């Protein structure tokens, strides 16, 4: 997220500085020995210091505007105070040159204290303003992520209730019933499980790999009833991997893409493999391109990329050569909502 830089009206800077300059001479007005020349010099130097510190504080805070830190930076505050003390010392020295009758020691102490107070007011005001900007931008970003996630979930739901998939499944079920296939009941159960998983998972941001593999198993059972030995599937996942997290239907979508874009036949079986390496989960298949690719209502890889990017701020890796197509998904061990 690009942090918005602090912008202060020039009128605010100059009017507030002049006001502080006048305010610094108020005690002198109550004095019996009021010296208008001394009051003017004091007011001008105080106003000048205020203007300088406004711009220094704005510059220093804008240098680190990209960081999402809503806490006061004490190191930065000390640096700005040190700058202010040096500048105020210089201005006090100028005041001594103009008003040589004033004792530099007591005046120096007074103006340094005044300078620290003015500097603190400028810094705290600008820090609060910057934090307010940051909070507004974070809120806007969260709303955008929420909107993108809802859109992805809607597109994902359309993908799962793909009329082509349902049509093919019902056709397969019809043939199984007509031939009195012994696995007809199991097919109905798996089809029911698949759509139950769809309805249960669509409201979740992440589910465990173990739950995701149940969805994949149900989907593959339905596809194997259609393609028979034209599909082979191998899983080589570590036990610890099953407890990690993944956006729902990610692996199922990738398995569906494998079947959709490659030749699946008894004479040329499609082998799909899922395994984990170096904190990633990999799904791969040999490239057996179809002459004509099936139409899809879903968003496929774009859906998965968007969910990983916006929901988790992570990227997936896609590798393809003439023989193997591979997708690497980063393992998610814990989830912090951004």
Automatic annotation (TrEMBL):
Q: Which residues form the Signal transduction histidine kinase internal region domain?
A: 152-229
Q: Please give an example of a GO cellular component term from this record.
A: membrane
Q: What keyword terms does UniProt attach to this protein?
A: Kinase, Membrane, Transferase, Transmembrane, Transmembrane helix
Q: Which domain of life is it from?
A: Bacteria
Q: Name one GO molecular function term.
A: phosphorelay sensor kinase activity
Membrane-crossing ranges are 12-30, 36-56, 77-98, 104-126
Indicate what this protein is called per its UniProt record: Histidine kinase
